[in-house]
Amino acid sequence: MVTNKNTLLMQLGVVLLAGCAVKGPDFASPDAETSPTWQHDASDQANTMADPDPNWWRGFNDPMLDTLEQRAIAGNPGLQIALLRIAASRSQEQIARAQGLPDLKATAGYEREQLGLAGLLKSAGPLPASIQNNAATGPLESQFTSPINLFTVALDASWELDLFGKVSRSVEAASAQSRASQEARNGALIALQAEVAQTYAQLRSAQTLRALTVKQIEQEQQIVELTKNLQVAGLGNQADVESIVGQTAQNQALLPQYEIQIAKACNALSVLLGLNPGTLSAELEVEGKILTLPGHVAIGMPASLARRRPDILEAEENLHMATAETGVAIASLYPDISLSAQYGVRNTSTKYLFDWASRFYSAGPTISLPIFQGGALTANVHLAKAEQKAAAITYRQTVLNALQEVENALVSFHQDQLRTRSLELASQASHRALTLNTNAYQHGLVSFIVVLNSEHLATQAQTDWTMAQVTQSTDLITLYKALGGGWELTPPVIAKDEQ
């Protein structure tokens, strides 16, 4: 008997020692495999020696944009949903951690029982007469036939020993999921900041084009008066008057289009801030200038992108979670070992329930070993490994997409800079030509069609230059979004009752 007991203890010890080494694969941060330099950083404003400013929108030097960004961070519904998801993932992490702690609970109960022992006595044959009619206890058979009351008060304790890493890997997976939710929130924050800035740039663009159109209409109305005066003096004709009147009407037809763009931008900004559409219309109606670009744009090196972009960090945490879940699946192949204990009092009468003689207890280990599950546990391991490999590929794909977005943003920003400079020169030249031709027309040196064409070219050149400036601003906003900066100084604040 002793030999069997020692053998059992030795086998249990071997299993426990083996289990301490079986915990699945350990996670290691993957290599992003980025290039040492950017391929399209030829812009004279790009600075690769410094990382992007977390508050990059302040580089546009627009107080209204600064205010809108802060209000959007505080009031955007999508960002609030992301915060609640972080709180939910933290609760999941706490649940996972609780699995590795002892479980203690108190129980109390009452039962009305019929023991059914009379039948057992009858099956054994009739009892001796001396026992059946005991003077002290009465008929013994009737005592076993009558129901009894059973009162119980006890403490139950159990503790699952994490010898094979199932609980620790579950906690690791839940923790990685919590961090992934945090990175998802950071990604939503960056997208929100960029969308607010781009929408604001479109608003200022529409307002600027509206103001330019109104100014051009005023200038054309002066030309209308000029052509009428020349007609009266015999130096012009009615066709010239009708031509410039038609040109003025075409520009006036542009104003409703700009009003629509302004209204839509105001509505979009209101919703981004968590307000009803149109709430900001009066506040934003005061026309501002097109966003001016900063002198230098810090873009950092490709190697720093993987530690800054939330989508890359989220993909890394998802890979971490998949790796830990592989460990959970492997640990499920091994026994579950737990310790349990119970201590309490039990009696058929409440009067003697808490008497020392009514106490009872039990304690001991429990081992549950999976023997046959139809291949489900092994299939679960294969599934976890496949998901881990898929998460690794997803991480690599996320890095490649991020690098592509930055490279595209860099080349667009640089080329649009060159285009904006050319359009600026074209606009300046066309306005000089308009001034010269208008003076020449007043002195009868050129026909009115020359003035009309010059006015059209000047208007188009001014519009193209304005749109190019807006495109350059949105290019820079897109670049900042691709670089992944803007979340570092705004950590989420979660209320205690949400944790």
Q: Identify low-pLDDT runs.
A: 7-11, 492-499
| Succession of helices and strands | HEHHEHHEEHEHHHHEHHEEHH
Computed CA radius of gyration, to the nearest angstrom: 40 Å
Main beta sheet strand tally, sense and closure: 4 strands, antiparallel
Overall body shape:
elongated
Q: Beta-strand level of the residues, as a percent range?
A: 5-15%
Count of discrete domains: 2
Q: What's the helical proportion of residues?
A: 55-70%
For the terminal residues, how far apart are their CA atoms? Answer: 54 Å
- Write down how many β-strands occur, each being a DSSP E stretch of 2 or more residues: 8
Spatial order of the strands in the main sheet? Answer: 2-5-7-8
Per CATH, what is the topology of the largest domain? Answer: Outer membrane efflux proteins (OEP)
What's the tally of helices? 14
Fourth-level CATH superfamily of the largest domain = Outer membrane efflux proteins (OEP)
On the 0 to 100 scale, the average pLDDT is 82
CATH architecture of the largest domain: Up-down Bundle
CATH class of the largest domain reads: Mainly Alpha
Structural class: alpha+beta
Topology of helices and strands:
Blueprint: H1 2-21, E1 46-47, H2 63-75, H3 77-98, E2 103-113, H4 117-123, H5 129-132, E3 133-134, E4 138-139, H6 140-145, E5 148-161, H7 166-232, H8 238-252, H9 254-272, H10 281-284, E6 297-298, H11 302-305, H12 310-331, E7 336-347, E8 359-368, H13 376-442, H14 448-483
Parallel strand pairs: 1-6
Antiparallel strand pairs: 2-5, 3-4, 5-7, 7-8
Helix pairs in contact: 2-7, 3-7, 7-8, 7-9, 7-12, 7-14, 8-14, 12-13, 13-14
